[in-house]
Amino acid sequence: MISFFKDLNLEKQINKNHSLDINLLKKSLPYPPDMSDLYRIYEFITLNKRTTILEFGSGWSSLIMSLALGENLKKHKNDIKDLRRNNPFELFVVDNENKYLSVSKKRIQDYKKINKNKILSKVNWLFSEVSMTLFEGRFATEYKTLPLCNPDFIYLDAPDQFNIKGKINGFNIGHNDLMPMCCDILKIEHFLVPGTIILIDGRGANAQFLKYHFKRNWIFIYEKIFDQYVLYLDEKSIGPLNDRQLKFYKS
Containing domain of residue 126, as a range? Predict the structure, then answer.
């Protein structure tokens, strides 16, 4: 794993314990990132040849995903010309915390200045407030605005449950005994194409909420050692364009 981060020229942020040096990060992030999580995200995107990513939240993952998409762009640019991908090798990031968006933007800008030989994807940034809502009569949260894209990889690691606007019947999830409950993916489920992957970092209750409300056939895997949930949209192709996309993933 260390050689992986050295190859990306991120070794200066790695200490002898294989984690990021907190002293280098404390001015920009409240929590240091998990190196194994970042490595896994990169591998998910490159090995599965993802083309368009929707990230809920921003952070070190935004840089890693942009690099992974950049690697896919370098390898597969000519392989997707016949696919229905209008945002090929683009990352869409939505966050309800402007301060984290700013930090993530600057991190990518700084990385580009130092590593001009590295290919990074186009990143589309969006700030959106998150408010309480009802989804099929159940309390949940929703982003006011979502990016206009159809991702084949979704990373769910936000929003913070303590920054949710409004109440419904006096209820808000900003309580230490409650947990995040984002419903946005449910609202776009029927636009997602077979082969789509969702990676949820922790958020077990939210993962179960999605599982119970999804209408389509998802393979649902909990990887306990990483405390992550992996969902794969396992359905037959919806047409010739999707045929080509699935063939591209498997080739």
Answer: 2-250
Print burial letters for 176-211: b (CB count within 10 Å at least 16), e (below 16): eeeebbbbbbbeebeebbbbbbbbbbbbeebbebbe
98-114 and 60-76 are packed helices; what angle lies between their axes, rounded to 10 degrees? 50
Please, what is the angle between helix 60-76 and helix 35-47, to 10°?
Answer: 20
Q: Which pLDDT belongs to residue 9? A: 87
Q: What is the mean pLDDT of residues 59-70?
A: 96
Q: What are phi and psi of 27, to 5 degrees?
A: -85, -15
CATH for 78: 3.40.50
Domains held by the chain: number: 1
Residue 32 pLDDT class (50, 70, 90 cuts): low
- Tokens for 11? 């070794």
Instruction: Evaluate if pTM is beyond 0.90.
Output: yes
